[in-house]
Each structure stands twice: as C-alpha cells, then as structure tokens.
Design goal:
CATH class of the largest domain: Mainly Beta
Radius of gyration: 18 Å
Strand content: 25-35%
CATH topology of the largest domain: Immunoglobulin-like
Number of strands: 8
Shape: globular
Protein name: C2 tensin-type domain-containing protein
CATH architecture of the largest domain: Sandwich
Helix content: 10-25%
Structural class: alpha+beta
Pfam family, one: PTEN_C2
Strand order of the largest sheet: 4-3-7-8
GO molecular function: phosphatidylinositol-3,4,5-trisphosphate 3-phosphatase activity
Distance between the termini: 36 Å
Order of helices and strands: HHHEEEEEEEEH
Length: about 200
C-alpha cells in the first residue's frame, strides 16, 4: 500500500491486516509494529477516528460484537465552552449536524442549526453547553457528528466525533475528551477548546 504519508488510512488498514493475519493477539501490538517499521520516531496512526476503528476491528474479530444496534440520541453535552474568538471569550452560535456514513457517502439526518434556543452565543463562564434533541433520533451503524459555529462570513467546523452504534456499551453513552475528537484542522479555535 503506497500513500503520500502512509500513516493514517494506510496505517489503519495495515494494522488491521496484521491483526487479522495473526501477527499479534491484540491490535495495540500490531499498531506498534506498523509504527516501528514505517517511522523512525515511532509515530503511526494518530487520528482519533482511526484509533477507534482499529479497536472496533479487534472487537469484531474477537466476536465481542456481532452486529450494529439501533440507538437513540437524546442529548449532547459539551463540557467547557470552546472559545472561537479571542475578542468574545466564548463561542459564537455553535450547532451540530448528525450524519449516517456508508462508505464515502454521508447523509445528514439531523441538525439543530435552526433551533434559536440552542444556537446562540455561549459565554466561557457558562461552563458547559447542554443540547437536548426534540425527540429520540434513531441511529444505526457508522455515525459522524460535526460541530460548527456561525462565524462572521462562514460556518467553520470546530471538531467531529465518529463512532459505530455496535460499540456503544450498556450505559448507552459516549464520552470523548479533547484527545478523542477529530479537529477538522488544528486551528486556534480547537486549541482554545477546554478539557
């Protein structure tokens, strides 16, 4: 497999192949093998969504999970308010979009962009943002949630979270800290996001 950098998507595929072929009995050691052979600094797969996928693959191969489940999205809580402008000390009208992902196809199934109660300015002092959905949004399979904010001229992406409903535990919740979310770009907006 040849890619320009050869560490992200190619590394994900190669790590899963190494595990499938039985090089090691856990995905972590396969990822370490890939990174030690491909890079002199030991770095390898680094994107949170790719790291999550290799662990999904391991769980699937070990038959810990058999098939995707239908789950209902009821609410989203952002702990700490991202600062999108050094002048505002807060976030200008954040909103989110929920996509079902099938291969390269993304289908938006919900956005709260038109909800004037939720899409407003949030001050850093508020500490968190609680976003309740009006009903139960049914999710199945690969899901991506993009968080954006209304800028002066555009709607830049703050970050995104990807997951598969088959791997949601019995507590029916997902927690992702700042190191488990995927920034669209490592911008100053993402750097000012809290813990």
């Amino acid at each position: 497999v040849h890619r320009n950098s050869g560490k992200g998507r190619a590394g994900t595929a190669i790590t899963c192949l190494l595990f499938f072929l039985g090089f090691y009995d856990n995905i972590y050691d396969c990822a370490k093998l890939f990174s030690s052979r491909r890079f002199t600094d030991g770095k390898g797969i680094s994107q949170p969504c790719q790291l999550r996928f290799i662990h999904y693959f391991e769980s699937f191969c070990k038959r810990e999970v058999m098939s995707p489940q239908i789950k209902a999205l009821k609410s989203i809580t952002l702990v700490d308010v991202p600062v999108t402008s050094s002048l505002s000390n807060g976030c200008n009208k954040p909103f989110f979009e929920v996509f079902m992902v099938d291969g390269l196809q993304q289908k938006m199934i919900y956005t709260n962009k038109g909800n004037s109660e939720q899409v407003r300015f949030y001050a850093k002092q508020e500490g968190k943002i609680d976003l309740m959905l009006p009903g139960k949004l049914r999710l199945f399979g690969n899901i991506m949630i993009k968080f954006r904010y209304n800028g002066a001229l555009s709607q830049p992406e703050l970050f995104r979270v990807t997951f598969n409903t088959a791997f949601i535990g019995n507590n029916n919740s997902i927690t992702a800290d700042r190191f488990q979310i995927s920034p669209e770009s490592l911008s100053k907006d993402f750097d000012r996001f809290g813990q």
